[in-house]
């Protein structure tokens, strides 16, 4: 299982916003410096986060981004899926007639990896952005 940098950076950037909520809007350049993430990459990520209504932009001299809703209402799964990230252990599609090896049957360990997928998704559903902020 591998979560790409897009998913990891989206969670990091959102945690940064939630951690700095008291200072108001945060610019992407500030997040970039604090989290050591490329500004250009953050811009791509925030376009997706904004389109999924997880963040909103504030214009002006003190502009930047703020959370669209409270950190207590934003699940990690919301963030990961907003940036089109897919975390899964299986190559096959869940409802496909073809099995894992492009045969008519599933591989012998299919159910094991499918169960692990459910645990991972359950974990990302349970953890909220506020939980990350409290841990730090």
Describe what you observe in this structure.
The chain has a domain at 5-89 and 128-135: Arc Repressor Mutant, subunit A (Orthogonal Bundle). The mean pLDDT is 87. A hairpin with a 5-residue loop joins strand 1 and strand 2. A two-stranded antiparallel ribbon has the order 1-2. The two termini are 25 Å apart. Helices cover 49% and strands 6% of the residues. Helix 1 packs across helix 6 (129-135). It is mostly helical. The protein is built from six helices and two strands, in the order αααββααα.
Topology summary:
Elements: H1 5-19, H2 28-35, H3 39-51, E1 55-58, E2 64-67, H4 76-82, H5 110-126, H6 129-135
Antiparallel strand pairs: 1-2
Helix pairs in contact: 1-2, 1-3, 1-4, 1-6
Task: Please summarize what this structure is.
This protein has 136 residues and is mainly alpha-helical. The chain is built from six helices and two strands.
Q: What percentage of residues falls in helices of 4 or more residues?
A: 40-55%
The beta-strand count equals 2
Which structural class matches the secondary elements? mainly alpha
Question: Which residues form runs of ≥5 with pLDDT under 50?
Answer: none
Strand coverage percent: 5-15%
Distance between the termini: 25 Å
CATH architecture annotation name of the domain at 5-89 and 128-135: Orthogonal Bundle
Task: Please give a handful of descriptors for the protein shown.
136 residues, mainly alpha, Arc Repressor Mutant, subunit A, elongated
């Amino acid at each position: 299982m591998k979560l790409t940098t897009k998913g990891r950076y989206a969670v990091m950037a959102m945690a940064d916003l939630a951690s700095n909520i008291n200072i108001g809007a945060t610019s992407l350049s500030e997040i970039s410096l604090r989290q050591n993430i490329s500004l250009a990459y953050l811009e791509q990520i925030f376009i997706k986060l904004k389109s999924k209504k997880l963040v909103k932009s504030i214009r002006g001299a003190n502009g930047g981004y703020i959370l669209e809703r409270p950190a207590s209402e934003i699940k990690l799964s919301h963030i990961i899926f907003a940036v089109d990230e897919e975390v899964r252990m299986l190559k096959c599609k869940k409802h496909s007639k073809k099995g894992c090896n492009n045969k008519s049957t599933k591989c012998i360990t299919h159910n094991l990896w499918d169960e692990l997928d459910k645990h991972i998704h359950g974990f990302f559903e349970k953890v909220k952005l506020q939980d990350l902020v409290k841990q730090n």
